[in-house]
């Protein structure tokens, strides 16, 4: 095992341990990492001596902050296309994780965003800690939630997922549990003991029982107290009406949410709302990933992705110049283009769900 590798693999007892190993980049995913994790899962699936897979992130800051956004920015700015290949393999990996036949345990400690959600929240046993901060922040960079994010957020209770998708807010452990993004809260000081004990588990039942022994009630979250205005405001049919309801609600937190939404890409907001609503009717994760591949491919060709990453990540001036600049300028036809079939470039997971990376 080369400790300089971006993905470390080793076996503890009967558990194959995958460690995302780019701590200085908050373990951001690149294409090589996605391919390596996919190959590790294929090997673990074939190996009868392996009972389960465990995924963690190197360092103290988080599991994974998402995809390597700088690389995607540079590729889009140069008019390239390698990001489309990355997403194709990444989304296939997300589907493989969801259908993996052995227990897949994800330690969602620290920052877990975007692609980090994709390699964790589709697993069987998802563990959060008091340090967890989980988000799908795509609208803030002119992009649309992907990696199955619209599937996960669309399935959240009421309109909680719509709130998180449009505001790009991060949530802690209790709210992740409430939204169905995680299963168990384990205090961070108990993680080492949990990982050690998991290595000795021989069955799925033993793994589940071990995690439950280490788990405890999560500290109180924030979203449960806001369900009334969130469900009322976000069930509106358009982003404009959602913002109007938030502003007129008389609730300070709702007004803050409206202000947060208005700072995001108008195009990304409208496409995201449509993607969430469509995802609820698609059913399978594979069908949603197919849809997300269409939205991602289209977003890649639009100016807001390059501008959003520039403003948030590269120049960090936090002053993106969106195009179009207002919600009123984004037409229904503009939104529909993001969902148009890609012809022979389709991801095609729903048609062949076994064909994962």
TrEMBL record:
It catalyses: 3-hydroxy-2-methylpropanoyl-CoA + H2O = 3-hydroxy-2-methylpropanoate + CoA + H(+). CDD domains: crotonase-like (cd06558). Keywords: Hydrolase. Its EC number is 3.1.2.4. It is an enzyme of class 3 (hydrolase). It holds the Pfam family ECH_2. The keyword Hydrolase applies. Residues 15-339 form the Enoyl-CoA hydratase/isomerase domain. NCBIfam families: PRK05617.1. This is 3-hydroxyisobutyryl-CoA hydrolase. It comes from Streptomyces pulveraceus.
